[in-house]
């Protein structure tokens, strides 16, 4: 039996099992940490990253070992191992596809290809060639990626200060010329297409080899430790009772595809995305139709970051204007042309999916790869066009528009079914006679495309790769339907008033004018409305309507998780079923309306039918959030609109291609220089890109689109700072806290008796200290706000800090501005895992740090304190939540003397921001404003829909 060459352990069935044993971090034979330490040397020397000296093959288990729990968002320096881990019980809840993703000698690394460039010899003496030095390159790189026009660059380079610099270029033209000498990637091609019907302009297709782009992504060292190259089944425990779905590789499709390709082959699921986007305004309204490509093997944590450049522009699909008298036939001709172009662009991937191809991975190994389509990210109309079905037909199932409101999923529209229908149509009508062919195709609810691009792509079916798209199918559906139902239920004036009196929240849009008159609503705005809509309509809309809207909101929030179990899928299905059980109330009350505000008595909503496919899709292809068009629409800005701004506003397509080619050369050169010359540097352009705001943020708005400030680090500095101080008696008067002295005395006494680690109760009994109790201090430091930073529930990634106010009366805020938070009351319970168990909701009234008297001992372990006033949960008919909104109802806790019940606690006990919405009742009080609603209302709804990080723990 084979034995481990390092520790001598025997009993392994084969050498692959030995490799798995040696790759585990807990094994004494693990070499994964050495790989990370020597990553640069590995890439420069093309050394085997598992230390192997075998010149022929390497086991699939050169992939780095996993952890006790699979979490791709933490410790991204490890790649999941392939194969099972039967020899280690710690990994028994992860099952890998056995024998997948083997590696072979003969590949090349990114650096190998970089050095093989025609100017590689010149870089042996100057690695920054064709630039003179690192500084020369950094300035040139910044100018190239700054978005400045050539004229603006010339003006900059002509400045006296700049002219004194030892630069190798003096004009924008010279700079671009040097950029074009940098090592390039896949080259752009242009092809004129001849159509069966005339067009106003020649039809030109600009495209790049799709297989070369896949090779570029696979070989990218930036994704070296961010790839899943073997399918796996993930379970929530060693008992394997529930499956857990995360990445595409965790779904059933990847496992099934792997079983259909040769043993040892590597499965590379490709992601495609296309959508029309406007590239010019007031200058002809030109439209581009970009096709993007990525790899599903790249982990979500990396792929969903805009700065990772994981989506590459593959083609600029033509947007022709056909000359035809029939407008509908123009649409048919355009659809046929798109499929023809996709045939051309994806032909290399079709061959790779059918026969396989040898590609190089980031470590320089060669892999036998197959490239089926894992997902095609599109909006609903384009999905129908790609599935070659009519507009009133589901692109995923056999449902037609009259069945869109059914409470079950219809039979999938498989590729074999559609192709069989096309065969029947073609047997009765000539595809070249588009009007006759169109009439015959309509009998099968098809759109007259006779040769769909996916007809000859192995392992790929539209009913599977047309994955649920969160931005359009979920958020835009809310704006098109749910929001309008709510507006009609309460009336525009009432719902606008309710939104306008909500207390403003930093980082969220405050709808001062309401929502009924919003125009051109973005995805970000729709998300902000969703945060409050359920609480706003509560009490004003019919009960069943509130339940229906809330059920759909539960559905939306659950499917946006980054980790979904079988149990979660049951909840998702249940939420959708609950909506269908109450949706009749929307039609009965006439809330669904069409043109001229006339009631609609049907459910012919395509996106409603698509919701039935979400739960099955999660099991097949992983969580839905990874297929959102948020990222691809952001990519359109970077890869289409930004290059357009640098053009001369004429003949856009070739200029976009040239600009993108230069930018990719710059990025690749930067990457190579970071390996060859790894001195610290800051990529100013990338940082600016990450900081830029856009209309439609990521489904996870905190991932990859903005640079997140780490306030955990800033808090350590704050602990040593010394702001101004004031007498605490002045603070008590300023903040209207008459019992502040007694509360501080009680806090100090409690810690003296029970220790600094004990949990001080909030209003656990009568005030023990006297009003004139002696305190060991006279002055305190005060802050009017704090920034509370937490981590994402599923990914543990650091989220942007939430600003929380505790400021006294000033200006419009005549009662002060005080926010609410979740605080811990039981150290045995943890937020968010325990939900509200061991926690309570309080209003933050004062943030302070007492300063001890000089020369006296100071026993407090935590010097940052807060005065808070407690809210109590109002039981509802034997339950803790309101039955219609499924939210907790809160009221202010009061002492017997009529004062608000409050106490002093350590700031460190604050766990999260708590958003409260006033209970407006049937009609909101007209005296309310956004400045006083929080103080005048007696009861509140604890808004669990404020964000996903609040939703999950408050739903427990």
Account of the protein in words:
This protein is of the alpha+beta class and 956 residues long. The protein has 32 helices and 29 strands. Strands 17, 18, 22, 23, 24, 25, 26, 27, 28 and 29 form a 10-stranded antiparallel sheet that branches. Strand 10 (277-278) and strand 11 (287-295) form a beta hairpin. Helix 17 (470-490) packs across helix 18, helix 17 runs parallel beside helix 19 and helix 25 (630-645) packs across helix 26 (652-676). It is globular, with a radius of gyration of 31 Å.
Ordered list of secondary-structure elements with their pairings:
Blueprint: H1 15-23, H2 32-37, H3 39-45, E1 57-58, E2 94-96, E3 103-104, H4 110-115, H5 134-144, H6 150-157, H7 160-163, H8 172-179, E4 189-193, E5 203-207, H9 210-219, E6 232-235, E7 243-245, H10 252-260, E8 266-267, E9 270-274, E10 277-278, E11 287-295, H11 300-303, E12 312-317, H12 327-355, E13 357-360, E14 366-370, E15 373-377, H13 380-386, H14 415-428, H15 434-442, H16 462-465, H17 470-490, H18 492-500, H19 523-537, H20 543-559, E16 564-565, H21 566-582, H22 584-588, H23 606-610, H24 614-621, H25 630-645, H26 652-676, H27 684-691, H28 711-718, E17 725-727, H29 728-734, H30 740-754, E18 777-783, E19 785-788, E20 802-807, E21 817-818, E22 820-824, E23 839-852, E24 865-873, E25 888-892, E26 902-906, E27 910-914, E28 916-918, H31 933-936, E29 939-942, H32 948-954
Parallel strand pairs: 8-14, 9-15
Antiparallel strand pairs: 1-3, 2-6, 4-5, 5-12, 6-7, 7-16, 9-11, 10-11, 11-12, 13-14, 17-18, 18-23, 19-20, 20-21, 22-23, 22-27, 23-24, 24-25, 24-26, 25-29, 28-29
């Amino acid at each position: 039996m084979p034995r481990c060459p390092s520790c001598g352990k025997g009993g392994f069935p084969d050498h692959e099992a030995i490799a798995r044993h040696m790759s585990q971090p807990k094994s004494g034979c693990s070499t994964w940490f050495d790989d990370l330490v020597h990553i640069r040397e590995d890439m420069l020397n093309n050394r085997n990253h598992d230390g192997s000296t075998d010149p022929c093959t390497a086991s699939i288990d050169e992939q780095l070992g996993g952890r006790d729990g699979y979490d791709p968002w933490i410790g991204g320096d490890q790649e999941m191992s392939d194969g099972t881990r039967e020899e280690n019980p710690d990994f028994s809840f992860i099952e890998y596809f056995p024998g997948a993703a083997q590696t072979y000698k003969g590949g090349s690394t990114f650096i190998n290809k970089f050095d093989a460039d025609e100017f590689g010899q010149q870089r042996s003496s100057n690695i920054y060639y064709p630039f003179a030095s690192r500084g020369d390159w950094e300035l040139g790189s910044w100018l190239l990626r700054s978005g400045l026009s050539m004229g603006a660059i010339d003006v900059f380079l002509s400045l006296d200060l700049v002219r004194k610099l030892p630069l190798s270029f003096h004009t924008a033209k010279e700079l671009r010329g040097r950029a074009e000498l940098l090592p390039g990637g896949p080259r752009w091609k242009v092809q004129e297409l001849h159509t069966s019907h005339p067009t106003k302009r020649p039809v030109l297709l600009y495209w790049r080899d799709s297989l070369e782009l896949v090779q570029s992504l696979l070989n990218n060292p930036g994704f070296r430790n961010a790839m899943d190259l073997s399918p796996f089944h993930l379970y929530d425990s060693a008992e394997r009772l529930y499956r857990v779905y995360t990445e595409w590789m965790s779904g059933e499709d990847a496992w099934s595809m792997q079983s259909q390709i040769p043993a040892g082959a590597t499965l590379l699921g490709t992601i495609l995305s296309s959508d029309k986007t406007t590239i010019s305004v007031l200058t002809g309204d030109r439209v581009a139709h970009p096709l993007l490509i990525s790899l599903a093997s790249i982990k979500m944590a990396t792929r969903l970051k805009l700065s990772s450049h994981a989506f590459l522009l593959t083609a600029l699909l033509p947007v022709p204007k056909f000359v035809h008298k029939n407008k509908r036939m123009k649409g048919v001709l355009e659809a046929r042309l798109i499929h023809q172009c996709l045939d051309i662009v994806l032909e290399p991937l079709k061959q790779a999916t059918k026969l396989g191809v040898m590609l190089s991975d980031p470590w320089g190994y060669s892999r036998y790869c197959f490239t089926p389509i894992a997902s095609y990210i599109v909006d609903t109309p384009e999905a129908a066009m790609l599935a070659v079905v009519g507009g009133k037909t589901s692109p995923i199932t056999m449902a037609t528009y009259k069945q869109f409101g059914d409470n079950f999923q219809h039979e999938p529209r498989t590729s074999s079914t559609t192709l069989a229908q096309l065969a029947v149509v073609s047997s009765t009508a000539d595809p070249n006679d588009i009007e006759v062919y169109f009439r015959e195709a309509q009998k099968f609810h098809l759109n007259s495309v006779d040769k769909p691009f996916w007809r000859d792509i192995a392992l790929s079916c539209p009913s599977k790769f047309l994955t649920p798209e969160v931005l359009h199918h979920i958020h835009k559906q809310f704006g098109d339907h749910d929001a309008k139902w709510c507006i009609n239920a309460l009336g525009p004036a009432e719902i606008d008033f309710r939104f306008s009196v909500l207390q403003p929240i930093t980082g969220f849009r405050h709808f001062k004018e309401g929502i009924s008159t919003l125009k051109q609503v973005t995805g970000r705005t729709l998300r902000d409305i969703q945060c409050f809509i359920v609480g706003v309509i509560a009490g004003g809309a019919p009960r069943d309507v509130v339940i229906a809207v809330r059920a759909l909101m539960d559905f939306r929030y659950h499917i946006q998780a980054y980790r979904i179990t079988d149990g979660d899928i049951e909840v998702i299905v249940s939420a959708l079923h609950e909506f269908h059980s109450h949706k009749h109330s929307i039609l009965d009350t006439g809330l669904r309306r069409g043109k001229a505000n006339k009631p609609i008595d049907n459910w012919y909503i395509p996106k409603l039918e698509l919701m039935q496919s979400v739960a099955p899709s999660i099991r097949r292809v992983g969580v839905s959030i990874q297929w959102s068009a948020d990222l691809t629409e952001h990519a359109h800005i970077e890869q289409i609109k930004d290059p357009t701004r640098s053009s001369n506003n004429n003949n856009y397509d070739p200029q976009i291609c040239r600009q993108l080619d230069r930018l990719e050369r710059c990025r690749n050169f930067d990457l190579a220089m970071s390996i060859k010359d790894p001195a610290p540097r800051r990529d100013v352009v990338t940082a600016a890109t990450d900081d830029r705001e856009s209309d439609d943020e990521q489904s996870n708005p905190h991932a990859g689109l903005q640079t997140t400030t780490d306030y955990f680090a800033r808090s350590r500095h704050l602990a040593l700072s010394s702001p101004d101080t004031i007498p605490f008696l002045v603070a008590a008067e300023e903040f209207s806290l008459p019992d502040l002295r007694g509360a501080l005395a009680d806090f100090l006494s409690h810690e003296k008796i029970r220790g600094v680690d004990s949990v001080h109760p909030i209003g656990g009994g009568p005030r023990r200290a006297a009003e004139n109790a002696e305190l060991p201090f006279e002055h305190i430091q005060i802050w009017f706000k704090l920034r509370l930073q937490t981590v994402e529930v599923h990914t543990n990634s650091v989220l942007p800090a939430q600003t929380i106010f505790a400021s006294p009366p000033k200006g419009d805020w005549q009662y002060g501005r005080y926010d609410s938070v979740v605080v811990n009351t039981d150290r045995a319970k943890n937020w968010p895992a325990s939900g509200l168990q061991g926690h309570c909701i309080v209003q933050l009234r004062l943030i302070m740090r007492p300063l001890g008297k000089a020369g006296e001992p100071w026993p407090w372990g935590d010097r940052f304190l807060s005065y808070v006033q407690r809210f109590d949960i109002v039981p509802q008919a034997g339950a803790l939540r309101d039955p219609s909104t499924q939210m907790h109802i809160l009221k202010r806790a009061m002492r017997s003397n009529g004062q608000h019940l409050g106490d002093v606690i350590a700031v460190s006990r604050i766990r999260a921001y708590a958003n409260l919405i006033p209970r407006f009742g049937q009609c909101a009080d007209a005296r309310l404003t956004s400045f006083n609603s929080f103080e005048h209302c007696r009861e509140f709804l604890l808004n669990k829909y404020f964000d996903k990080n609040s939703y999950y723990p408050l739903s427990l």
